[in-house]
Amino acid sequence: MQSIGIVAPSSMHFAEPLALKSGAQIGDYTLVYETYGTLNADRSNAVLVCHALNASHHVAGVYADKPKSTGWWDNMVGPGKPLDTDRFFVIGVNNLGSCFGSTGPMHVNPATGKPYGAAFPLVTVEDWVAAQARLADALGIERFAAVMGGSLGGMQALAWSLMFPDRLRHCMVIASTPKLSAQNIAFNDVARQAILTDPDYRGGDFYAHGVVPKNGLKVARMVGHITYLSNDDMAEKFGRKLRNAAENNDYKFDFGVDFEIESYLRYQGDKFSEYFDANTYLLITKALDYFDPAREFDGDLTKALAQTRAEFFVASFSTDWRFSPERSREIVEALVSNRRRVTYAEIDAPHGHDAFLLEDQRYMNMVRAYYQRIWDQLQGAQA
Amino acid sequence: MQSIGIVAPSSMHFAEPLALKSGAQIGDYTLVYETYGTLNADRSNAVLVCHALNASHHVAGVYADKPKSTGWWDNMVGPGKPLDTDRFFVIGVNNLGSCFGSTGPMHVNPATGKPYGAAFPLVTVEDWVAAQARLADALGIERFAAVMGGSLGGMQALAWSLMFPDRLRHCMVIASTPKLSAQNIAFNDVARQAILTDPDYRGGDFYAHGVVPKNGLKVARMVGHITYLSNDDMAEKFGRKLRNAAENNDYKFDFGVDFEIESYLRYQGDKFSEYFDANTYLLITKALDYFDPAREFDGDLTKALAQTRAEFFVASFSTDWRFSPERSREIVEALVSNRRRVTYAEIDAPHGHDAFLLEDQRYMNMVRAYYQRIWDQLQGAQA
């Protein structure tokens, strides 16, 4: 299978204000997006792919001028891939508040003429979905063949099935959860405290000061990254291997790097702090914390999901301790209680939460088979 | 059962330098300690209790001038308690490098006339045990009835059984591990990075600048605290409860406190940052990372533990994901392979790693029964 090849982002400006769940609104805004494949004549083959914390509209392919810029789900989306772009018209949208092109904290607030910074309104999963629906309107897509996402992206897919029940045939929720646990929120708050207390954060207006709260972002990313990997996988990949093993295989007795795992995490943290926006990190973690569709139903997920009309594909990974299989099973059980059609795959995979992004034959085969079914349905509907 | 009542610390100065595992040495130093109960005539009833990261020599009782200063294991140690001070002579020692009285980073380095700060040498679990052994010498204790500890304290008990096999009859290792995992080290390094990158850390010499790296310490404590609690316990105690639930039960849409768990963790972090020393935190996490008695035996714990002579009590807690029961079983299996006498209790308890400090009837009964056995042995030996 080959990659979809060279791709390029588009952007669309929305002049009508968007009312947000917080009560605030965004006056006008731009969404950056990419599409792959061709929309068919009856506009029935569109699939929306929703991104997670550290990703964007750039789902598949590469940019002409950046040969290493492969999209984050390139193994999943492309010609002949599980989500086959020879069949489906795939859309990736960068969410509001992100730092990868769509209107976000580093953009100019028309009200002040200065970057939004911490004044960018907190956006929720539901706000993102509302903005995505406007893009779908503009692209002439009344109903998606599927809305699909992993982790935070899965929350968006779930929100689509609740907010616009008739605008998606299939809802694909992977490595996700109906709401964060106290432990999930706790890790997010550690990350936020690391950023907020970094003196270079400057109350969110660091752009004006020509600084970046790199130390805070680094610590935030390090703690986040630990929760993306499984304990076993970390043990196997790093264990207690020393960074300087080749030299003398001894401890350094200082606060530099002794172990490979320290080197790896610090490197990941440093890299992240060089490209990710601190305000975006803060607001995305809040969107995660706030997501809880059962909340308006006294915590009853079954009642919440009674609004859905889509068919569901839910998948989880055995070693994912961030959003464990148990959390996916809650979604499945609530759907089954509502007599919805639901396919559930609990995949035995070693790579923790990150597994949803990685190549795994059983996982890919499941998604491929499910898209075959969607395709067969579409053919039947056309026949 | 009543507390042991009013207690007071003692201190002992050691003029002879202590050679450390790192190759460095500490010229002279003071250890602060407390004792409870009475040493019997043949000096056979002494029990050494080793402390973990955030604790000290103050194991039981209260200080006369501080009615809320109850010792950290007061539920375990006292008259009629599982470790009964009517029978045993119990010693708690504050370890070198700590911030609770024994010589540590905030004390004056005789070589410079200024506080050690980051120049305080990195000390290991084995260095602590060597220092404790000198205190035992000074107190005239040739052989302990037991050396006991939880978590990092359990590592010290294990190190005693290896370094001084004939100086303890019983070794009691609770909620501990023969070595940290990559994930354990990763969390420690997040904590260290938070402290080291706090501008108020000032390379460890913050004392001279009249500041404290409170933000770094706060984040370090928050992430540590998450690993002390179980996921289930956190879910039950905090869940998604909002801090302002009584007011309007809505999200705040800012970066203040929304959830109870955020409030709790930030409070714990703030409190910790007001009394704990940043240099001590750094060096204790390194002592944790470095502990690995099997290292000199090509990673073979069975070979390492062949040096032991003591009888063992090992206990773990079902929901402890920091040092899970699996890690205790590694110790037990290595001991059994060496045909050592070992009692192992895997206790079904909801409170995660912190369970070793908490009241739990089954746990307390196990420890009580084990000390009864030690007592019976001592009576037999005297008869």
TrEMBL record, chains A, B:
The keyword Transferase applies. Belongs to the AB hydrolase superfamily. MetX family. InterPro entries: AB_hydrolase_1, AB_hydrolase_fold, HAT_MetX-like. Its EC number is 2.3.1.46. It comes from the Bacteria. Its main location: cytoplasm. The keyword Ligase does not apply. It is found in: Cytoplasm. NCBIfam families: homoserO_Ac_trn, PRK00175.1. The active site is at residues 151, 320, 353. It holds the Pfam family Abhydrolase_1. Pathway: Amino-acid biosynthesis; L-methionine biosynthesis via de novo pathway; O-succinyl-L-homoserine from L-homoserine: step 1/1. Residues 45-358 form the AB hydrolase-1 domain. Keywords: Acyltransferase, Amino-acid biosynthesis, Cytoplasm, Methionine biosynthesis, Transferase. The record marks 322 as: Important for acyl-CoA specificity. It comes from Massilia cavernae. Transmembrane segments: none annotated. One of its GO terms (biological process) is homoserine metabolic process. It catalyses: L-homoserine + succinyl-CoA = O-succinyl-L-homoserine + CoA. Substrate binds at residues 221, 354. This is Homoserine O-succinyltransferase. Homodimer. GO terms for molecular function: homoserine O-acetyltransferase activity; homoserine O-succinyltransferase activity. One of its GO terms (cellular component) is cytoplasm.
